[in-house]
Amino acid sequence: MKTQAENVRMKNRTKPDIFETRSSPAGFTLSRFGYALTPAIVLALWIAPAFAQNATAPQRYAAAVEALDHFIAREVADKRLPALSIALVDDQTIVWAKGYGFNDTQKKVPATAETIYRIGSVSKLYTDIAIMQLVERGALDLDAPVTKYLRDFKPINPFNTPITLRQLMAHRSGLVREPPVGHYFDPTNPSLAKTVESLNKTELVYEPEKKIKYSNAAIATVGYALEKTQGEPFAKYLQKRVLDPLGLKRSSFEQDPVLMKDLAAATMWTYHGREFDAPTFPLGMAPAGCMYSTVTDQARFLRVLFAGGSGPGGQVLKPETLEQMWTPQFAPKDAKDGFGIGFMLSELDGRKRIGHGGAIYGFSFELAGLPGDKLGVAVCAARDVSNSVTTRIADESLRHLLAVRQGKSLPAIEEPKPLPPDLATKLAGRYSDGAKGVDLIERTGKLFALPVRGGFRMETRLLGDTLVTDDALDVGHKLPIKDGKLTLNDQTYSRTIPTKPEPAPAQWTGLIGEYGWDHNTLYILEKDGKLHALIEWFFLYPLKELSENVFAFPTDFGLYHGEKLTFSRDKNGKATQVLAGPVLFERRKLDGEDGSTFRIQPIRPLADLCKEALAVQPPKEAGEFRKSDLVDVTSLDDSIKLDIRYATANNFLSTPFYTSARAFMQRPAAEAVTRVHKKLADQGYGLLIHDGYRPWYVTKMFWEATPEKNRIFVADPSKGSRHNRGMAVDLTLFDKKTGKPIEMVGGYDEMSDRSYPDYMGGTSLQRWHRDLLRRAMEAEGFTVYEAEWWHFDFKGWQQHGIQNLRFEEIGKP
Question: What is the layout of strands, in order, in the sheet containing 34-35?
């Protein structure tokens, strides 16, 4: 249901300004449920049986399919897509359909052309078609006030223009993006009636017809008007009047058990590197994005469109109705892109392109057709917000189909290459001109682009000698760099010298934090002296401060353009909740957020675990290892500070594990730590060590005491820890003037997202200090652990074996 997905697709087609960002579900920018119109950064079988497996292409298309097959397989692997399915259509024939990856990665069930996906905002097309059937019969009027059909529909409308079905279906109603109840984040599955009723608590963002405002709430309202006027539940009506007549046998707006057994297992992911299974709950605004389908069913839908609305059971829509739906609404007569009635309209290489994108919890869908050529494609992937990938595959597929149709050579498919790590390091920095610009951020040899103004963080690669965006979030934006200047869309940005950030304004301290649900968390953070919202995992927006507790989303781009965030604070000034638009996000309780030590309740008594751990031996390792030479780090430089938490009860298990507060490491690693410490002194900082060498039996206790969900933060004793080898260190910075530890985004041993080295929350100063530590350690041969900003492993750790010596035994013969 992400509308940004659609924004991405639209913007990738026109190569928009990279400093502008996608919008809401299912409009013209990448968003939940599809695309919304806002600038994006960033983008047969009526004659043959249903495809039970992957289908072979006719000889005419063999070369095109071979090229596409190679390209898609590469994208699936490169973009880490658990599953992807595609179907290509030439008029009334599905010429090729195939699945890649797995429906279920654990059980290794292969994906096929008949894999079930959630298709997000592509669902909107079917809701709108049901309405247009009734318009054809004269049962509904597109331009009558919608209150004619929903008498109790009364959102606050300060304008003289009433809301109509046409406005709702063309995203010109001015309604908020999400309803207060039944919204994209809401897992409670309220009724459609309750969802639409909640809109009476909202006020229009814009005057109807004046501006595109992509809205899931709008299409929920359309679906409810259908339900009320026809006296039948929405999902059942759609099945009987639309899906069945279209010949879609494996599609539904309900969680049909027969279909659900073939639903792809989709993946959610974050900038900081955490992945988790996508939630599967249905939403209250089902008409806007809750349809289940296959790519072959969507290919059948394309066939009906190319047949002028004629389905296997007769006429579903009149040809003139389809033409109306494919005409930009509330637009100049010569407009070629925008919203029609439901359909997103654009051009591909000068040809009219119709379709829609969809994005909903782990699924990214693209449906596209060239009606003048009767060529179409449906493609879906099971990775969240990978719409740039599905859109690119769709467009490349259409170009290949068109080349075959025209008897031309197949178009070349660009294949960007990874940057050499040294080049990524060399190019990293800020390139800006006033408020606009882009940060190029190096991470483990890769280079990411993040617009200063907000938007997506995107990986860049080399296309020839030019940087180009190429990842799940954005494809094809070129960023040539020459003489220290970066050019983008005819604008040139000069490299600037980074400076240490100022502390965030005190009045924002109580607002910064996490809000909402585990499955969809809102982050409020400070960046470049502005409060920002990171919402729906990937969409970063600078906020405009309107008052102490009220901030505005950007007015000219994004999922929530024109809407506000309103915070509520407790007596101490700490926010307890925030209304983002009309959606209420409760503040998340984070252990350790107040600066206290993060703690968990052991799942087993520690005394029992200690007895068991001491009674067994570490795993045996094959091969030869270097002779151990563990040294006390402070013996090499006594100005390094120690805070060995495991020698006290001040740790995540509230129990001492060491008998003395010492930090041992293999000599080469210890010497590297002292070099880092000396270099940092020039900037006024030193190193404070929390842990070094750790006996194996302690690692085993940690593992057995920690709940499964937190075990990414503790080492598996069956493999041993780098700490057990004396080649890892846990540390932070301290201020040499005050001797106090530096405040980081999260605390030591905190088992939360805040611990990840690339977590985007907190303040600019906290992240600057975290990155300063990382750069200093990496310069001396250390690598940061993926889930802990404080944990660093020294190069060559594989050459040292697991040890189980207690501190008192170190150095003894």
Answer: 2-3, 26-32, 34-35
Look at residue 39 in the predicted model and tell me its pLDDT.
29
What pLDDT was estimated at residue 727? 98
Question: pLDDT at position 37, please?
Answer: 32
Residue type, 364: S
φ and ψ of 131, to 5 deg: -65, -45
Those residues whose C-beta lies under 8 Å from the C-beta of residue 726, and which sit 6 or more positions away, are 628, 630, 664, 665, 666, 669, 692, 693, 800, 803
Residue spans of beta strands (DSSP E) within 660-776: 664-666, 685-691, 728-735
Contacts of 546 (CB under 8 A, 6+ apart): 552, 564
Helix (H, G, I), strand (E, B) or coil at 805: coil
User: Are residues 380 and 85 in contact, defined by beta-carbon separation less than 8 angstroms?
Assistant: yes
- Residue (of 671, 681, 686, 679) closest to 636 by Cα position: 671
CA distance readout (Å), 74 to 70, 195, 231, 531, 789:
6, 41, 49, 39, 32
CA distance 564 to 443: 33
Q: What is the DSSP string of 750-787?
A: --SGGGSTT---S-HHHHHHHHHHHHHHHTTTEEEETT
**SS3 of residue 259 by DSSP:** helix
Cα separation, 226 vs 155, in Å, equals: 19
Radius of gyration (C-alpha) of the chain in whole angstroms: 28
Instruction: Name the residue among 33, 61, 731 with its Cα closest to residue 360.
Output: 33
Angle at alpha carbon of residue 92, lines to 87 and 98, rounded to 5°: 15
C-alpha to C-alpha distances, 230 to 287, 425, 612, nearest whole angstrom: 15, 62, 68
The amino acid sitting at 503 is P
At 56 the pLDDT is 62
With H, G, I as helix, E, B as strand and everything else as coil, classify residue 551: strand
Contact 191, 228 (CB under 8 A): no
The 3-state DSSP class for residue 581 equals coil
Rounded to 5°, the CA angle 717-721-724 comes to 105
Q: Give the containing element (helix H, strand E) for 48.
A: none
Pairing state between β 583-586 and 788-794: unpaired
Three-class DSSP category at 669: helix
Q: What token pair was written down for 743?
A: 């405040």
Q: Which helix (H) or strand (E) holds 466?
A: strand 466-470
* Calpha distance 288→222 (Å, rounded): 9
**Distance between CA atoms of 558 and 554, rounded to whole angstroms?**
7
In this prediction, the residues of the chain whose per-residue pLDDT falls under 70 are 1-57
Return the ∠ at Cα 551 (arms to 561 and 593), rounded to 5°.
115
**Alpha carbon distance 367, 128 (integer Å):** 15
- The whole-angstrom separation of Cα 79 and Cα 82 is 9
DSSP one-letter code for 343: -
Predicted confidence at residue 497, as pLDDT, reads 87
How many other C-beta atoms can be found within 10 angstroms of the C-beta atom of residue 415? Answer: 13
Backbone angles phi, psi at 201, to 5 degrees: -90, 0
Nearest 10 degrees: Cα torsion 162, 149, 178, 23: -60
Burial of residue 6, with CB atoms counted within 10 A of its CB: 0-12 exposed, 13-18 middle, 19 or more buried: buried
pLDDT of residue 57: 65
The terminus-to-terminus CA distance of the chain in angstroms comes to 65
Three-state DSSP state, 564 = strand
Q: Tell me if residue 690 falls in helix, strand or coil.
A: strand
pLDDT at 55: 57
Task: With beta carbons less than 8 A apart as the criterion, state whether 16 and 453 touch.
Answer: no
> Which pLDDT score, from 0 to 100, does residue 435 have?
79
* CB count in 10 Å sphere of residue 660: 9
